[in-house]
Amino acid sequence: MLSGRTPFYSSVNSEIYDNVLKAELDFSDPCFTPEAAALIERLLQSHPSQRLDDAEAIKAHPYFASVDWAALEAKKVPAPIQLDLTMSDVRYIKWKFTSEWATIPKPSDVTRDTVDMLISRFSNFAHVSDEAPPTSASGQAANGEEQREQDDTAATTTTPRGSRDVVGLWSIASVEMRTMDGKVVYPWGSKVRGVLAYFPDGQVSLQIAAQMRPCLRHHLAERATREELIEVCNSYMACFGTYETDAGANTIAHRLHGSLGPNLTNSTQKYTYKLEGSDKHGVEKLKLYSSFNELPGEHMAAQTILTWKRVSTF
Q1: Which one of 23, 40, 110, 308 is CB 3.0 to 4.6 Å from 170, fit for a cystine?
Q2: What residues does the Protein kinase domain cover (predicted)?
């Protein structure tokens, strides 16, 4: 719980067994105080006679010296972290879990009364529209959330404009993937950070990062584990190059000169775009829609939708 991973972690079961039997515990992370390290060592002793397994002995350990056990049992100790959460807030859940598609197997022997009961109990769950989402930026809202957004901002207009309207600095608002039948998933989690810069001379720079990226156990990347390096790459993307817009077709093309993923270097990433704003405030929101692409192993196609909010103009 201190480091965010199990002490003998590996993605391969045989390596876990070897680690349990032979590996030394690594307490180099600053999260491990001397008291914490001593407690963990006692708890993980392989020989039962040396293992700390008595409740009173555990409570008396120096690591818990500041804990008032009587007050804790009486529920008089406030939680050390107060989470500010709403019903659908998943910001504290690791992004790799929120990026998974929700698949619900069809239950057997379900009556209409059962369905009505489930609907009444879980009415706050996100609704998936029966209609397919738009395949271009000129389409109408595909689901209730986007429609409500438009209703709440009646003065907002969607206008096809030229490259001068995309020029500026943008901050990421959301990254979502949407299937042809309207299912939506957030591959970077509910909260994401990122900037997109379109310069007047045709240069573009884009960066996106998961909000809660785990730290490496060591500051030097060459000492990171394979799993840590995979997590580093999967939780950050960056690229730069030039861009061209086609206002008539509402498309924008990123011609990448460099990318964190080297396979994308010298490639062209083409998006349909939609600009939203008002006559009073001008363009305030930019949406980039990728084409629908087959997802490996998923037997479905999905498009990525990047929503950006304007920070400033150049």
Answers
A1: 308
A2: 1-64
